[in-house]
Fold these 2 entries.
Entry 1:
Amino acid sequence: MADKILRWGLLSTANINRALIPPLKASKRNRLVAVASRSQASADSYAHQWKIPRAFAGYDALLNSRDVDVIYNSLPNGLHAEWTIKALHAGKHVLCEKPMAVSLAEMDAIQDAARQTGRVVAEAFMYRHHPQTLKIKQMLADGSLGKLQMIKGSFTFMLESAGDVRLDPGLGGGSIWDVGCYPISFARMVAGAEPLEVFGWQVTGQSGIDMSFTGQMRFPGDVYAQFDCGFASPFHSFMEIVGTQGALNIPVPFKPGKKEKIYFSHGNKTEKQEIKGQELYIGEVEDMADAILLGQPPRISLEDSRGNAATILALLESAHSGKPVAL
Ligand SMILES: NC(=O)c1ccc[n+]([C@@H]2O[C@H](COP(=O)([O-])OP(=O)(O)OC[C@H]3O[C@@H](n4cnc5c(N)ncnc54)[C@H](OP(=O)(O)O)[C@@H]3O)[C@@H](O)[C@H]2O)c1
């Protein structure tokens, strides 16, 4: 099994595929063999453009192919659970784009399907595999920051296209699902726990989804987190982690590249730490191969994905009710 080459199929012609295609083509243990689209013409033209050997009309046709081992689910958020579950039952392993699901019932159904089929399924939070994130986790584990106190973060950009699926409430639209999921995921990873309580405020757009969202999370041990996200301000993203002995400023937390810098303050000094990174999306591809071929647990567990969805849902509930929500 360890020598097998995994054959991947792209579920849709989504824009984000272009981030995964180069690492799939570069990897020795993975091979991109197919793409599916809702129409044959679109699948054919995509396959031609990206030099993908097979093009399927309709997603079921890809899932039914015996020549595919792993599905990359890059559908709109509201379709993730349905097609991840179908793919698992068709015997495929699945790397599913974030957020893996937009309700806890969907998350539970994915967990059931993974258990029943014994297939690997993981959420595509690519930043979790990058050397910068691993370095930050190491600094937290070795106590460089002292006792954790506060985590802050942001992810915003201008969403300019009126027809974007991110604006559609029926397809899991909204800025907290699209980009807020990153600082929330990052804060939960740093805290090493699920929040006990959250509070959220949102500004909604014409379709009813949140165009911007601001939230707070209270974690065990008097650790607090604040974040904001949105579709209505220029690109802005950062994370900060403050402990009793040190503070970390992370200017590029979610899409780090091959060379990054983080800033570590302790006493009255701020040190620049240089990080030798890697191609951002290779990590999630190799993590899937480790899980499928070597039997290692994926770096992002389904419990972790469920925790992120539960936190987002609680924040949305708080924004609707105007009250704090306990988890
Ligand atoms: N990890 C990252 O860095 C990152 C970055 C961007 C996006 N994402 C995630 O990736 C996913 C896709 O995002 P994207 O911006 O790449 O999406 P997109 O370009 O809008 O593509 C979504 C694809 O889904 C298919 N689709 C099926 N039913 C659809 C419907 N009712 N309406 C629209 N499209 C439908 C279409 O493919 P066919 O026409 O071929 O069937 C479409 O090309 C989202 O979950 C998003 O959160 C992740």
Entry 2:
Amino acid sequence: MNFEEIDFLNKRVPKLIFGTLTMAPLQRNMPPEEGGKIIAHGIDLGLRWIDTAQMYGSYKHTRLGIEYSKIDRDKLVISTKSAVKSFNEMSDAINQALSELNTDYIDLFLLHAVRSIDDFKERAGAFEALLDAQKKGIIHSVGISTHSTVCARILATDKRINWFHLMFNKKGIGITDGTIEYQEETVKIIKENGGRVYAMKPLGGGYLKDSAEESLKWVKNHKLIDAVALGMTSIDELEMNTNIFKNLEVAKDLSDKLKSIKKTLFVFKNLCIGCNKCTEICEQNAINVKSDKKAEVDKQNCILCGYCVPVCPKFALRII
Ligand code: SF4
Ligand code: SF4
């Protein structure tokens, strides 16, 4: 049984994308060599699209994975993202990606974590740099990633955006300003206008782990979704997810084992100085500084994206 595949410009790739956030310093903080081996194993199993980001800190993991697998670079799709604002900052981000990934082109480069339409407008310089690099052939497609379905809806008809990376799971977990039904309608408009969509957080950042198979199948089989990014840090996760995307059975003991692994965002309160940097970056309103001047996580709202981890000046946050 083979993967269901999609066209990505002149390449054919499986619908399952190897996401590198969960192995990166923001989350598991795996050594690049260890992460590279998992990525290489994924490539051996047939995966061909690797998703990374400047903010994740997983360029080295990705580069080593490609090197270890010995695959021809042109057989892979590499997507990355940057959350910078200006033209020059984005030009630097593109050069950093090319250099650290050891490649002379990027298949898809996205403006990362666009919070709102105002935020998109404020980052017009960065977006221009992406279009400029696309004209020069340095990047092959341009995209945006956003947790906001309202923002995606406004940009749905913008033909300069080739790909949207959107929160998409059956419960709508992580969508900051709407429901999954509203998001489905947004995606429909994007598709009608020629845009393409790959799903973010199909397991809701881990909250849908107890129904992982059913939740992944729901996104995989969704007619509007082109591809699905899923973070993987172990051979077990790779086996389960590739089986699901190949429509193969998943052994019960494997799925039970993975269900039993829980993640949480932990605040080392003895280190926290109550500076609020984490609360400012969190789009989910999931971390707040309380009257004792210590940060506290609202576990209902936290999607374990890890974006707050690197902004903490005291290294008081860790996903474990
Ligand atoms: S608190 Fe917010 S930024 Fe931090 S991991 Fe949770 S959702 Fe992400
Ligand atoms: S950024 Fe770090 S030190 Fe500042 S409030 Fe958040 S956890 Fe505390």
